[in-house]
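Progress note, sequence design subtask.
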């Protein structure tokens, strides 16, 4: 406040209060900001409505049926009238040797796919980036992308034919060296290598597109500076390309870990048979046999819920570890 006794203006405190009040009146509230945003971007939200409806109808609404895992479900009584049994189905699952075998096989196949399959798209992307001949590059990319667009049924037919003991190319080549033919797809010890190799051949090329896009975003000036400094192509790959796409690699790894229990159901159904159940049966095929073929929908529902919970825990764990140590995460 002024020390002049003749000062008749407002005090400093009142001026500050008035300024704050005026600022408060000018600043819109959260609801007003949301309303203004919706008025400006209503076309975008209108385009989102079909996707939101699809998610609600096909992903969120079916969650109501998860209660089947905790009920003694009967198709005649219906879901609502079936009695609750608590965790009885989960106890049955973990006492079922077939489920434990399927869980063990799922983890084993997923680990093989992660170790051998996850690096392949990265290697392909780096190799494509280093190819200077454009015609050869486009031809090679087309060849490795193509299997992704072929139906799993056709892929399985190709595999069955290739490993056939009578006319398969693999046994034919073995015959040239005087080796006896082997019916690979009836040998449990051969199923996992064949399945993992087939998955890599089918998906590695298409998955490399993500890493090629990440490589395309690297500034060319980094490579130009490296050339001036006398770096070799190999050094540029390890010092520029790989570190630059590392955030993309981490994100894709987190997603891959979350899908570890989602082993390709279609391909296994098409390739496996009772003779290879010991190493080929996975959680999804167990759910199919128990739920669809055996009519035990409640038990299959419990297995499916267990699968989803484990996947959620894996994603959360991988994301937390990645966020803590690399500052890269999904959210």
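Output:
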């Amino acid at each position: 406040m002024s020390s002049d006794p003749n000062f008749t203006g407002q005090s400093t405190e009142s001026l500050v209060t008035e300024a704050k009040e005026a600022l408060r009146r000018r600043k819109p509230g959260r609801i007003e900001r949301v309303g203004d945003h919706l008025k400006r971007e209503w076309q975008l939200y209108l385009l989102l409505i079909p996707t939101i409806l699809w998610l609600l109808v096909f992903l969120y609404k079916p969650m109501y049926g998860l209660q089947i895992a905790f009920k003694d479900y009967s198709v005649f009584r219906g879901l609502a009238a079936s009695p609750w049994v608590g965790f009885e189905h989960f106890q049955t699952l973990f006492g079922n040797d077939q489920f434990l075998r399927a869980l063990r096989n799922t983890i084993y196949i997923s680990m093989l796919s992660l170790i051998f399959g996850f690096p392949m798209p990265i290697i392909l992307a780096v190799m494509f980036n280093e190819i200077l001949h454009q015609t050869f590059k486009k031809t090679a990319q087309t060849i490795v992308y193509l299997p992704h667009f072929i139906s799993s049924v056709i892929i399985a037919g190709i595999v069955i034919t290739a490993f056939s003991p009578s006319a398969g190319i693999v046994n034919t080549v073995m015959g040239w060296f005087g080796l006896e033919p082997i019916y690979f797809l009836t040998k449990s010890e051969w199923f996992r290598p064949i399945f993992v190799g087939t998955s890599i051949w089918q998906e590695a090329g298409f998955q490399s597109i993500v890493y090629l896009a990440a490589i395309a975003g690297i500034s060319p000036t980094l490579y130009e500076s490296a050339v001036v400094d006398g770096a070799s192509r190999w050094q540029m790959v390890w010092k520029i390309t790989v570190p630059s796409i590392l955030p993309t690699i981490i994100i894709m790894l987190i997603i891959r870990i979350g899908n570890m229990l989602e082993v390709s159901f279609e391909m296994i159904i098409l390739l496996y048979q009772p003779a290879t159940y010991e190493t080929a049966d996975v959680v999804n095929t167990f759910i199919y046999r128990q739920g669809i073929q055996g009519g035990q929908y409640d038990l299959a529902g419990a297995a499916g819920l267990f699968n989803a919970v484990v996947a959620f825990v894996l994603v959360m764990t991988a994301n937390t570890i990645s966020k803590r140590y690399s500052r890269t995460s999904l959210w």
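Residues 297-326 form the longest helix (30 residues). Work on this subtask will continue into the next period as scheduled.
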